[in-house]
Design a protein that fits this description.
This protein is an all-alpha fold. It has one domain. Helix content is about 70%, strand content about 0%. It is built from six helices and no strands. The radius of gyration is 20 Å and the shape is elongated.
Length: about 170
């Protein structure tokens, strides 16, 4: 596999740093979701049910899902069907892989853009059981769109330099 030189590019280092923040955010989000769910169970059984916990858990699940998506794109562990790519000649495979990454960039660009529009439009709407603007909830779309675009741009960079979309740490030759 290709050397780890692309990790030293600005884009690669930025992607690594942003991914580290996303991994911590994913851990915190899942921990909070678990804690809120346990708290709800305890309160429902022995005390009075919490009115906000289900909505908070749903929001945390959405955040965790989107953060997990960005981490998966960084690692290249998202679901892929490669049998068609595997039968293509190497030059054609590289072109198809670049096209796939570019389509991902367009998709996440649209997701981020319309997510930002939604944040602006819904900034005065409050969540149904919590006094929080829905703009904070919709912020996950532009943030994860930008992060996914960054990771996909690094994949394109690695495809152009080395012919592989991802050069993981420690895989240098």
């Amino acid at each position: 596999m290709a050397p780890v030189e692309s990790r030293r590019s600005f884009l690669g280092r930025l992607s690594d740093g942003v991914n580290a923040v996303c991994e911590v955010g994913l851990f915190v989000t899942l921990t909070l979701m678990t804690g809120v769910t346990i708290l709800q169970i305890v309160c429902r059984i022995w005390f009075r049910a919490l009115t906000w916990s289900e909505e908070a858990t749903c929001f945390l699940l959405v955040f965790a899902s989107f953060l997990g998506t960005t981490v998966a794109f960084k690692r290249g562990s998202n679901i892929a069907v490669n049998f068609m790519l595997d039968v293509l000649p190497k030059p054609v495979r590289k072109i198809v892989m670049i096209a796939i990454e570019l389509m991902g960039i367009v998709f996440f660009g649209a997701t981020g853009w319309y997510g930002a529009v939604l944040c602006i439009q819904e900034r005065t709407q409050l969540a149904s059981s919590m006094p929080i603007s829905m703009a904070w909830m919709y912020l996950v779309f532009p943030l994860t769109g930008a992060v996914a675009i960054l990771h996909l741009a690094v994949h394109v960079e690695n495809l152009l330099k080395y012919g592989v979309p991802i050069v993981e740490k420690g895989s240098g030759g």
